[in-house]
Write a structure and sequence with these properties.
Blueprint: H1 2-31, E1 40-45, H2 51-63, E2 67-72, E3 78-83, H3 89-108
Antiparallel strand pairs: 1-3, 2-3
GO molecular function: monoatomic cation transmembrane transporter activity
InterPro entries: Cation_antiport_E (IPR002758)
Subcellular location: Cell membrane
Length: 109
């Protein structure tokens, strides 16, 4: 139980870090003379299997500036995400996995 609580605390700290970094990136893009954005909708394969885990991930993605969760596929295997800069699709997916999904998987275990 303690291990799970520590993982939740770690997720909160990671979210706050991502919130700050994403806020800065969106502010820079908003005030740039020539923003180099490539908005995209990305289909992210999910490793999470519980509804609570998927809902948590979708909410964390939506709360992070520059990304919005749009839809979870009916089979719960894909999360569709809109991002302001989708020039590196695999980079966006890896970032979400590394930041949020990996820790949520630990909490679910």
């Amino acid at each position: 139980m303690l291990w799970r609580g520590l993982a939740c605390l770690r997720l909160a700290v990671i979210f706050l870090r991502e919130l700050a970094l994403s806020s800065w990136a969106v502010a820079r893009a908003a005030f740039a003379r020539q923003p180099a954005l490539a908005p995209a909708i990305i289909a992210m394969p999910l490793r999470l299997r519980t509804e609570m885990g998927i809902a948590t991930l979708a909410n964390l993605v939506s709360l992070t500036p520059g990304t919005t969760s749009l839809h979870v596929s009916q089979d719960h295997r894909t999360l569709y995400v809109h991002c302001l800069d989708g020039s590196d699709v695999q980079g966006v997916i890896n970032g979400i996995r590394r930041s949020f999904e990996d820790v949520i998987l630990e909490i679910e275990a």
